[in-house]
């Protein structure tokens, strides 16, 4: 059973999550110390806890799955939903391969909270997790996300957030950026603006968990010369396409207003027929 835990405010834990943590025989945690503090706060001390993190995932998976065959096992992370930017998803895959039932409880998630708080269009978005640590790889990842022309959501370390914002500013100075720091905690901070403006508004010493939502600036419309337009019209007329089809297609390609293209294509077709 995957159990989301509070990001900061303990009251964000669900009643179902408390039930599972009370009834389970084993808690699988990213950091056993963090898990013990949570269980103690919920008046559930004394639970058996097994560490599961990237460094020991391979050796720990087998024993965890064997335990899950006969007992209720609760999987938690330090904060939020397990399996998001941590090795929990590999545990799900291994459990499915072993035909062990898996259930994921709904609960806190910083990425979705930040996406909604940003106010950006999020009918479509991409979640990128943590950017690569090296500058060149990070720049390539940011550039690829910006090219998709939809909002992208990132987690970032307070130690690297300034470098990430600096690279964003260089790639797309007009991109809209929303930064959410210490979500649900006492010193929560929300910042909006360009990457340069957000960086300037950060405290001198940045601390805490950070979620970043980036909306690329609108792509500049393509500018086509009349010669390029005429060439495309002639190309399509040579393919025996109708004037209406030419106008519809070229308007969609950004060559101009549909009616104007229709008139120009009609004139060129009549000239060719004379």
Short structural summary:
With 274 residues, this protein is of the alpha/beta class.
Descriptive overview:
- There is one protein chain.
- The protein has 274 residues and is α/β, with parallel strands linked by helices.
- It has three domains: 10-97, Tetrapyrrole methylase, N-terminal domain (Cobalt-precorrin-4 Transmethylase, domain 1); 110-215, Tetrapyrrole methylase, C-terminal domain (Methyltransferase, Cobalt-precorrin-4 Transmethylase, Domain 2), CATH 3.30.950.10; 226-273.
- The protein is built from eleven helices and eight strands.
- It has helices spanning 15-23, 32-41, 57-68, 88-97, 110-118, 135-147, 161-171, 195-201, 226-238, 243-252, 258-273, and strands at 26-29, 48-51, 73-76, 125-129, 151-156, 176-181, 189-193, 210-215.
- A five-stranded mixed beta sheet has the order 4-5-8-6-7, with helices on both faces. A three-stranded parallel beta sheet has the order 2-1-3, with helices on both faces.
- Helix 9 packs across helix 10 (243-252).
- The termini are far apart.
- Domains (count): 3
Can you give the mean pLDDT?
A: 93
**Total beta strand runs:** 8
Structural class of the helices, strands and pairings?
Answer: alpha/beta
CATH fold-level assignment of the largest domain: Methyltransferase, Cobalt-precorrin-4 Transmethylase, Domain 2
Give the amount of beta strand, in percent.
5-15%
The percent range for helix content is 40-55%
Q: What's the CATH architecture of the largest domain?
A: 2-Layer Sandwich
- Rg over CA atoms: 27 Å
Total helix count?
11
Shape: elongated
- Please trace the helix and strand order, writing H or E for each element: HEHEHEHHEHEHEEHEHHH
Query: Widest sheet: strand order?
Result: 4-5-8-6-7
CATH homologous superfamily descriptor of the largest domain: Tetrapyrrole methylase, C-terminal domain
CATH class value of the largest domain = Alpha Beta
The span between the termini is 77 Å
Unreliably modeled segments: none
């Amino acid at each position: 059973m995957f159990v989301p835990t509070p990001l900061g405010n303990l009251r964000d834990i669900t009643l179902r999550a408390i039930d599972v943590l009370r009834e389970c025989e084993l808690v699988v945690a990213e950091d056993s110390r963090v898990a013990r503090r949570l269980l103690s706060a919920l008046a559930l001390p004394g639970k058996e806890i097994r560490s599961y993190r990237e460094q020991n995932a391979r050796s720990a998976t087998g024993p965890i799955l064997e335990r899950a065959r006969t007992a209720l096992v609760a999987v938690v992370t330090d904060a939020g939903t397990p399996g998001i930017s941590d090795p929990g998803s590999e545990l799900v895959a291994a459990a499915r391969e072993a035909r062990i039932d898996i259930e994921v409880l709904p609960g806190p998630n910083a990425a979705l909270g930040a996406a909604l708080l940003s106010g950006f269009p999020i009918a479509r978005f991409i979640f990128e997790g943590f950017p690569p640590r090296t500058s060149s790889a990070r720049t390539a990842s940011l550039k690829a996300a910006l090219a998709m022309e939809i909002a992208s959501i990132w987690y970032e370390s307070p130690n690297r957030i300034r470098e990430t914002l600096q690279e964003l500013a260089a790639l797309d100075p007009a991109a809209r950026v929303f930064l959410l720091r210490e979500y649900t905690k006492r010193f929560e901070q929300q910042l909006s603006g360009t990457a340069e403006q957000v960086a300037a508004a950060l405290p001198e010493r940045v601390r805490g968990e950070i979620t970043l939502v980036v909306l690329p600036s609108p792509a500049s419309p393509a500018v086509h010369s009349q010669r390029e337009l005429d060439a495309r019209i002639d190309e399509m007329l040579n393919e025996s396409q109708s004037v209406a089809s030419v106008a519809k297609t070229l308007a969609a390609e950004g060559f101009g207003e549909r009616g104007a293209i229709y008139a120009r294509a009609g004139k060129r077709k009549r000239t060719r027929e004379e």
